[in-house]
Design brief:
The chain is 56% helix and 18% strand. By secondary structure, it is an alpha+beta fold. It has a 6-stranded mixed barrel. Strand 2 (69-70) and strand 3 form a beta hairpin. The longest helix has 44 residues, at 261-304. It has 2 domains: 2-52 and 266-399, no CATH class; 83-254, no CATH class.
Length: 401
């Protein structure tokens, strides 16, 4: 019963000075709101990046040509033609490799339907959609037989469709690549832009054999895409690929570079996590300032209500009752401020997401952390004023003017 009585008294005390109570809560509101908004927007951005990384294919390992030493010269990815189709076939035999595709990239002016468009022409294997987790919206992917026969078949992206076949179904029509006619047998589902700002839908995909022997005359591939069985074996598969290619190329130093999507995802996650904690740390300063404000106002309140405290003690209130009352007032201020801050932070992040067309995610854990932190700030900030009030001498308090 004493707790409920203290709650009623605390409520009346806060209502008597509504404006002062609101201003006191402002520091907590700004602090908690900043934390929630920062974490929501950062988490949303992280999820967007993670989705984009996933769209490149899960458990994917990419082998690039290059990273070699020749005399005093060193090169990076794609700086030397060191990978072959034979390397791809050898990698396909490694345990836990479920799909593989040699990749040949080039740009070309393509023509169709009386229109032309400069786009990326890529040579791939039939496993490419599986590796990249990319659906075929209409038609079908070319087959292994198309690869063996150097078929003039093509699968195109949504951007190419929009540029060359507006308001038409391109499947079954012909697209000319360097004056060679290719039959369009499929259209890829839209994917949008990737992490690097590249339009993934601006692409024409043909069998790698057709690219290497019809469109260009090259014997090396730019890179090799490999899909591991799952992310648990990706490190082992990556190590096996490195050992295999070192043995095949009979080189003590790597003339290739091996990377996996997991490394990219971990780098993105680590950066995002660091940014979240940095923003939360900056916002936490506002919480501390808010706590100082609560302590200041509670000390003023103790001074203003000294006579009231003396009267309560004279009619039987214990020091513990006075302590609890002022603690409740401080915690109430911080808890209400924390609740308003959470709502305001979420509303602000949703508004920014709506205006800027970016995703927002508010982790439940951070909401709980923000609310509990505001309550703890209230306890810490209110304890000294409450303790000071409970130690007042009733006689001196009654004489106070």
């Amino acid at each position: 019963m004493r707790i409920f009585a203290s709650l009623r008294i605390a409520g009346r005390a806060l209502r008597r000075n509504k404006m002062r109570s609101l201003l006191t809560m402002l520091g907590i509101i700004i602090g908690v709101g900043s934390v929630i908004a920062a974490v929501s927007l950062t988490s949303g951005a992280t999820k967007q990046v993670e989705d984009q990384v996933s769209s490149l294919g899960e458990s994917v390992i990419t082998v690039f040509s290059g990273n070699f030493t020749s005399g005093a010269m060193r090169g990076g990815w794609g700086s030397a033609p060191t990978l072959t189709v034979a390397d791809t076939l050898a990698i396909a035999g490694i345990a836990d490799v479920v799909a593989v595709s040699p990749e040949v990239r080039d740009r070309a002016q393509v023509l169709a339907n009386g229109l032309n468009w400069n786009t990326q022409v890529i040579g791939e294997s039939p496993d490419y959609p599986q590796i990249r987790n990319w659906n075929i919206a209409s038609g079908a992917m070319f087959s292994d037989q198309d690869v063996r026969s150097l078929a003039k078949s093509a699968v195109i992206g949504k951007t190419v469709v929009d540029q060359l076949f507006p308001n038409e179904n391109p499947v079954g029509q012909t697209i000319r690549i360097r004056n060679l006619p290719f039959l369009i047998i499929g259209v890829l589902a839209p994917k949008g832009f990737n992490l690097f700002g590249q339009d993934q839908d601006d692409v024409v995909i043909v069998p790698y054999s057709s690219h290497m022997h019809r469109i260009t005359t090259r014997t090396f591939v730019n890179s090799i895409l490999v899909e591991a069985a799952n992310d648990k074996v990706i490190d082992k598969v990556q190590s096996d690929i490195t050992d295999l290619l070192l043995a095949r190329h009979r080189s003590k130093e790597q003339d290739f570079t091996v990377r996996n999507q997991l490394e990219l995802m971990q780098a993105v996650t680590a950066t995002s996590r660091a940014m979240s904690f940095l923003l939360a740390g900056v916002a936490a300063v506002s919480l501390v300032v808010g706590g100082i404000g609560i302590m200041n106002i509670m000390l003023v309140s103790v001074t203003e209500r000294t006579r009231e405290i003396g009267i309560r003690m004279a009619v039987g209130a214990r020091a513990a009752d006075i302590l609890v009352q002022f603690l409740i007032e401080a915690v109430t201020l911080s808890a209400i401020g924390g609740s308003i801050g959470i709502a305001g932070g979420m509303a602000f992040s949703w508004l920014v997401a709506y205006l800027k067309n970016i995703p927002t995610v508010t982790p439940v854990g951070w909401i709980a952390i923000a609310f509990i932190s505001s309550a703890i700030i209230g306890v810490i900030s209110g304890f000294y004023p409450a303790w000071k009030a409970s130690k007042l001498d009733p006689i001196d308090a009654l004489r106070y003017e």
